[in-house]
């Protein structure tokens, strides 16, 4: 029983009343914009009544603009950090390659040759101390 007009027939008077209501609403909606722009339709009372809604729209606009600026700043920061990470990665890889080259046995031998150290030709000797504190070979 949601729609009583569907189940019951309408009298002619009820139909005319409904048609008149619909026509008046259509006329009001057509003339709404015109009434706002005319001096008679735009009064001080209407302007004061619209202030909260206009304030709400202004607040939404400010929030939208602030959110847009925040998003753009975040994108710029992410881009800068991405470039910095790439640069630091390249620097790390080049330093690691230099370290690997400088830590090879031949490179170390060249560096210590200047201070008088030589590469061992024979294996190292083990020194064992006995109980009588003598050196055994």
Number of helices: 4
Order of helices and strands: HHHHEE
Cα-based radius of gyration, to the nearest Å: 46 Å
Which strand order spans the largest sheet, edge to edge or round the barrel?
Answer: 1-2
**Can you summarize the main beta sheet?**
2 strands, antiparallel
Report the structural category.
mainly alpha
Mean pLDDT: 84
How far the N terminus sits from the C terminus, by CA atoms, comes to 115 Å
What's the total number of strands?
A: 2
Structure, explained:
Helix content is 72%, strand content 3%. The protein is rod-shaped. The protein contains 4 helices and 2 strands, in the order H-H-H-H-E-E. The chain has a two-stranded antiparallel ribbon with strand order 1-2. The chain is mainly α and 137 residues long.
Quickly list its features.
137 residues; two-stranded antiparallel ribbon; 72% helix
Question: What is the compact description of this entry?
Answer:
The protein is mostly helical. The chain is built from 4 helices and 2 strands; from the N terminus they run ααααββ. The mean pLDDT is 84.
